[in-house]
Amino acid sequence: MEPLKPVSPGARIALGAGFFAVFIAAWGVATYGGYVPPLFLASPGKTLLAGWSLLTEFGFLGDIAVTIWRVVGGFLIAAAVAVPLGLLMGAFKPIEAFFEPFLSFARYLPASAFIPLLILWAGVGEAQKLSVIVIGSVFQLVIMVAGVAGATRPDLVEAARTLGSGRLSILRRVVIPAAAPQIAETLRLVLGWAWTYVIVAELIGATSGIGHMIMDSQRLLDTGQMIFGIAVIGIIGLVTDLLFKAANRRLFPWAVL
Amino acid sequence: MSAKTLRIAGVTRTFPTQRRAAPTLALQPTDLSVAPGEFVAILGPSGCGKSTLLRIVAGLDRPTAGQVLLDGTAVAAPGPDRGMVFQSYTLFPWLTVEENIRYGLRERGLPEAQQAEIAARFIARTGLRGFEGHWPRQLSGGMQQRTALARALANDPEILLLDEPFGALDHQTRELMQELLLEIWEADRKTVLFVTHDIDEAIFLANRVLVMSARPGRIKAEVPVPLPYPRDWTMKTIPEFGTLKARLMGEIRDEVRKSLA
Ligand SMILES: Nc1ncnc2c1ncn2[C@@H]1O[C@H](COP(=O)(O)OP(=O)(O)OP(=O)(O)O)[C@@H](O)[C@H]1O
Ligand SMILES: [Mg+2]
């Protein structure tokens, strides 16, 4: 091991998989070894069995689909608002000065605290679920996008000006392309947060979704189902993360991410 | 052949106070006239206001007093009539070499075919053939600055403003770049304002060398370079070159010493 020396792709995958193995082994030792009572923590085998019955008998795939739909929907709404606004704020300082103080206040409002209000306003339907995700992510996203856009290298902006670019052209041809890879990274991060919000939203007043299933399992004290539900979220997160990273590499081959 | 006369009239720049420190006078009232097609080198110690002067001509910075006139018209903002190559690398990292060179052409809305034709011409002239599709991060420093030069030239500016464009390059690359620039200038005779702190470079390239004083900068001496064009590297070995160099060294040594004092 040398400081900052990169690892080969093969070694990277092996090491990454290695910790999963260690983690599952430790879980197995704790449960099969009888160190933790089954009431509190199901064993890996029990969890898989519970998952199998969830998928085949209880229509869990439908819950997964509903939850993914909510996450993607809420996330897209948040991004559609936050990315343009953030870009404008980053590029034009008066716009930033106008919104920034309010956003700095709003970003600290916990999305989960809005759930009772949102149920009052929007009922327990999809609008309420989406709202929780949007409230949870949009303010953070705007601030982060504005930060990225505002960090555009000023010498590149100046170079563009000497080449004849006006204000809008600088936004379109310099600020946006310069910020794009970082914005994509930010979106990847915030999509992860959206998953936390959707589950919170589904724990209260929902009739479908992964969160709702976890809540139901708690009533039955079925830790296997609960853990399986949580693990599914993790797996979906891992997959979207990999997809996002691959897409970013293809979209921004010029960047050294 | 460019046709506009550049006149710098009483241009002064003071940078405002930062946290109770005294304001910085970067540039004392400066006057300068540059005829169409002239190659003027500005020589001066670090921090004497060379970049400040060039940025004001480019329209990127505003003078505290005085003005910059192009054929009698005051410049207030940057424009494609004044192309600039910066001290730092400023290629757009998300554009390839060719796309970087086309940047200003696209801005002007030229038809694709014409953009491609102009870009190809400057790619050839700056020796970048075979690298059209490379990203800036795949290029050496010398190639990046050649691309930056091609990008500025492709726009066909009246005046070329070069702020130590070769300052970050190694000695050999630098000399090759000087010859390349000279070749281009000898063919096009564009007005050039070239900032440097390298005396050899200034004499080798320019028809006229201006020496700036230590901060606050002003033009303290003006030295014509009566060496004929076309020039090549052998020029650096002739006695006249040595005489000019000795004179400029004398001028600049005092200033560097002052800037360190
Ligand atoms: N934006 C600014 N704010 C405050 N002071 C500045 C600013 N830009 C330049 N200065 C000051 O003005 C003086 C001249 O700066 P300038 O960059 O023009 O020097 P230079 O001759 O180009 O130096 P170098 O050869 O190192 O590039 C310096 O003392 C610098 O500290
Ligand atoms: Mg400088």
UniProtKB/TrEMBL annotation, chain A:
> ABC transmembrane type-1 domain spans which residues?
64-244
Tell me which InterPro entries the record gives: MetI-like, MetI-like_sf
Q: Where in the cell is it found?
A: Cell membrane
Q: Which domain of life is it from?
A: Bacteria
Keyword vocabulary terms for this entry: Cell membrane, Membrane, Transmembrane, Transmembrane helix, Transport
Membrane-crossing residue ranges in chain numbering: 12-35, 75-93, 105-124, 130-151, 190-214, 226-244
Gene3D superfamilies attached to this UniProt entry: MetI-like (1.10.3720.10)
Any signal peptide, and if so, which residues?
Answer: none
Stated membrane topology is:
Multi-pass membrane protein
Keyword Transmembrane helix attributed: yes
A Pfam family annotated for this chain is BPD_transp_1
Q: For this UniProt entry, what is the primary localization, expressed as one broad class?
A: membrane
What CDD domains does the database record attribute to this sequence? TM_PBP2
Entry similarity comment: Belongs to the binding-protein-dependent transport system permease family.
Protein name from the UniProt record = ABC transporter permease
Q: Which organism is it from?
A: Belnapia mucosa
Lineage, please? Bacteria, Pseudomonadati, Pseudomonadota, Alphaproteobacteria, Acetobacterales
UniProtKB/TrEMBL annotation, chain B:
- Keyword field contains Nucleotide-binding: yes
SUPFAM superfamilies (alphabetical):
P-loop containing nucleoside triphosphate hydrolases
The ABC transporter domain covers: 6-239
Q: Name one Pfam family in it.
A: ABC_tran
Which portions of this protein are annotated as coiled-coil regions?
Answer: none
Q: Which UniProt keywords apply?
A: ATP-binding, Nucleotide-binding, Transport
Q: PROSITE patterns given for it? A: ABC_TRANSPORTER_2
Q: Which InterPro entries did the record assign?
A: AAA+_ATPase, ABC_transporter-like_ATP-bd, ABC_transporter_ATP-bind, P-loop_NTPase
Name the Gene Ontology molecular function terms of this record.
ATP binding
**Family annotation (SMART domains):** AAA (SM00382)
Q: Which family does it belong to?
A: Belongs to the ABC transporter superfamily.
What protein name applies here? ABC transporter ATP-binding protein
